[in-house]
Amino acid sequence: MKIFITDNINLGIDGFETLPVVQGSIMLGKIPRNGCEFILIKNCLDKIKDDVLQEIVSKMRKDGELSISGHDIKSINRQFYTRQIDKKQFMDLVLDKKNLYSSDEIVNKLKELKLTIVSSTLEGTDYDIKAIRASK
Prior knowledge:
globular, 6-stranded mixed sheet, alpha/beta
């Protein structure tokens, strides 16, 4: 099973079951534990009210892959402080968020959950993290 978590209910990917973020939450209950070979979270982790990473990771099977992209709050703050972005751009990036994450924070949480980080990149304010649940 492949899962695509997005805040755009009109967006989908062939071969993936789309789970939209609605009013700050996602419905993971129907996804079986250890049932997902691939989970893609596209620019919406910060729009979910609760810290759901542990629940999301529980849905991954051994050798399953996780890909998370989003906006890094530390980079956003740095760019605002150094005037690389103005107040309007700053507000556009943080206003509708339920949580604010840095890429370091997500990487550390995934490591705590026993995932292996394959890559973690940061370009401007955007991060992209790829991890696997290694089989033992």
